[in-house]
Amino acid sequence: xxxxxxxxxxxLTIDDANLPVVDLSGLFxxxxxxxxxxxxxxxxxxxxxxxxxxxxxxxPQEQIDALxxxxxxxxxxxxxxxxxxxxxxxxxxxxxxxxxxxxxxxxKSINFNEAWDxxxxxxxxxxxxxxxxxxxxxxxxxxxxxxxxxxxxxxDAAFNLGLRLLDALAMExxxxxxxxxxxxxxxxxxxxxxxxxxxxMPATKEIVGIAAHSDFECFTLLLTGGPGLQVMNxxxxxxxxxxxxxxxxxxxxxIFETWSGGQFKSTQHRVINIGKxxxxxxxxxxxxYHAVVQPLEKFRTPETEAKYPPMKAGEHLMRMSVHAFRxxxxxxxxxxxxxxxxxxxxxxxxREAKEV
Length: 356
Prior knowledge:
The chain is an alpha+beta fold. The chain has 12 helices and 15 strands.
């Protein structure tokens, strides 16, 4: 069993979930009818909470444990070792993100986490890599024996699981999978190996694990080793989403809300500062940088077109990333990062929670 999960965490079961739980086994071994049942369950969860657990997902626990161990092995290295791989040395956001780089408003606001960020492997001659600031290109790897193989192997497994979910959600919406996968050749699908840092600071709106946000991509596949994640429910109230052994947490992102004309919900969530060390691994399943995202033809009406005007997937990601990473905010302020889009004050998908 995972050594960094407490006895209280191990005691949790699916029955303790505050969010829907979807059994994916029908996607792998079932009939067309079983697959349709899974798709329906996913669609119900995407329309109501936008956040849910998945079980029987097909990724072995041994592979998950190896990823946690790899993340711990990196994050326990010295600061000087980790800074050799600082993401600010790149223009496509690869490598180490120290805690003071998380959020463009440091130190007024503090996100108490550090991360290793990687993404879908693209060649060094890819035009978007050569153009800079398009979140596409080759990965970099720390000098830790076996680390690349462990992390890239998990990435491949989780990305393939994402393709399964994409297929099921397309079925639920009544559209051909190819209408969605045509936008996936070298996607900006990022895996973050996060460590939330031990600290004695209070939990406030300005001092957090990660500030409230929606995710910018299609959906997120999340592994987490401890409490702290909170989700805004349908009543705009924060609820707990604790880790449950054997499950991923999945949440719908901005792209799927747009594709579905608002039927699927890109849900606000945050990680409060609990002051304890905690590991977490989200994979943000995205599209190619230049993919144009708008309501799918089936859901295109004057109302949905007005609410969800066309956007490029990568540009939306970059607009939000300028707020999310201080080195990008600094580059933007200095004119070194010259995007062909305006950076808004905040994510247009954001909702405010009710005070309760």
